[in-house]
Specification:
By secondary structure, this protein is an alpha/beta fold. 41% of the residues lie in helices and 15% in strands. The chain binds magnesium ion.
């Protein structure tokens, strides 16, 4: 039960390890990207070259990158402008609200969407509830903002449970796509 909601389709160290060709071949059209601790640390307000290259690479593979973040508009909008992509801020992940809006606005099916993020109880849970392809990435820093600290605390408990039941192990990266 817990595994169904919390186990990602893929578990990777960093977005740079992703095989975008494979995702494209599997029919992914919309690529939902979390920003904080996935592309950049909370402490910076600009995407770096590698983050920008990743967003560009998604486009070059014929997929549409969309930033979905629980953070405020001011921050998210600036990053989206830099990456020249659409964004949904204050998304309240893992709620389905913004995800459903994306399906409507891009006229796509659930199996045409993948989502990458660093948090189990926002990015992975939200994506799994929508039956998207979910990709869990290691957070790029250990620094969380206030809400991140709370979710990280709960997340640790879930990780511990998954480890105890041998469903998941930290740093054991896999690809179940
Ligand atoms: Mg994040």
């Amino acid at each position: 039960m817990i595994a169904k909601y919390f186990l990602p389709t893929m578990y990777i160290k960093n977005y740079q390890d992703l095989d975008l060709d494979k995702l494209k071949k599997r029919g992914v059209r919309i690529f939902i990207v979390d920003v904080d601790n996935t592309l950049i640390s909370h402490e910076v307000s600009q995407l770096d070259d590698s983050g920008l290259a990743f967003m560009e690479n998604i486009k070059n593979h014929g997929m549409i990158p969309v930033i979905v973040s629980n953070n405020v508009k001011q921050r998210v909008e600036q990053l989206a402008r830099q990456a020249d992509c659409a964004y949904y801020s204050f998304a309240l992940k893992p709620l389905k609200l913004k995800y459903k809006r994306i399906l409507r606005e891009y006229k796509c099916n659930q199996d045409e969407v993948c989502v990458i993020g660093d948090q189990l109880i926002t990015d992975v849970l939200g994506g799994n509830r929508m039956k998207f392809i979910t990709i869990l990435q290691e957070p790029i820093t250990n620094i969380d903002n206030t809400s991140g600290k709370v979710t990280r605390f709960i997340e640790t408990k879930i990780f511990n449970y998954l480890e105890k039941t041998n469903k998941w192990r930290k740093h054991n990266y896999y690809d179940n796509l």
